Amino acid sequence: MAKLSGENKKQYLRERFEEQRLFLSKSIKEFVSGDLAEAVRIAITIRVLVHETGSSKSLLGQLTPNYLDLKILDRAPVREETHELPHGTQSVVVMSVPISVKMKAEGVFLNPDLDVEAYQASILGKWWGRHSLILPGLGGFSRKEIVRGLADKEGGAHVDTDINPKYQQLLDSKSLQLGWNQEAVSPLNLSRFMAGQAGVELLDCLDKNFPRNA
């Protein structure tokens, strides 16, 4: 089987990249309008762009070898309290939900506008692998864990009922409940909103590192 090389390979990869960027942009638009099912499409696109295994290379990794060092905005982690604590105690973060939402009479919607003041400069590898969502009793979840859960278990690439217990607890979590009024309050679908937020952040990264007219 002949393999593409040189300029043909470069052009092919760039075309596939632009398709994935378009998929991501369209899915974010639909998600922001309230279609939470688009989180599954967002997750599979992020996985194609970023995730690597022993047998497959990410699309970004094929475009640029140092892709994990690409600059990206990451929500500043919640800091543990630094004031003096009683002897024998320590401060821990028990909840961090780095999602920006808008509440309307119709429901709760993802806010696609990044609040730059709430972010700090980081790199893609750290953004992908660090614990970002932290829930009481469950601990931390990385974007990688959440994206792979949606892609590998909830229908992005596979539907699999063999779900990791910790991820199942995330799906069942009612840790954060939001709504326009008391009658409309409901648990936020954290895995899907986290995927949507990750999509917004990654799209911003792609647009800054890979200008559309380049």
Comma- or semicolon-separated keywords:
8 strands, two-stranded antiparallel ribbon, alpha+beta, 214 residues
Describe the 3D structure.
This protein has 214 residues and is an alpha+beta fold. The chain has one domain. The protein contains seven helices and eight strands; from the N terminus they run αααββββαββααββα. It has a two-stranded antiparallel sheet. A two-stranded antiparallel sheet has the order 2-3. β2 and β3 form a beta hairpin. α1 packs antiparallel against α2. It starts with 5 loop residues before the first helix and ends in a 5-residue tail after the last helix. The relative contact order is 0.19.
Shape: globular
Q: How many domains make up the coordinates?
A: 1
Oligomer: single chain
Determine the number of helices (DSSP H or I, runs of at least 4 residues). 7
Strand order in the largest sheet:
1-4
**Given the helix and strand composition, which structural class is it?**
alpha+beta
Q: What is the average per-residue confidence, as pLDDT, rounded to a whole number?
A: 84
Radius of gyration from the alpha-carbon trace, in angstroms: 19 Å
Q: Regions with pLDDT < 50 over 5+ consecutive residues?
A: 88-92
Q: Ends: how far apart?
A: 31 Å
Total beta strands: 8
**Fraction of residues in helices?**
40-55%
Percentage of residues in strands: 5-15%
N-to-C SSE series? HHHEEEEHEEHHEEH
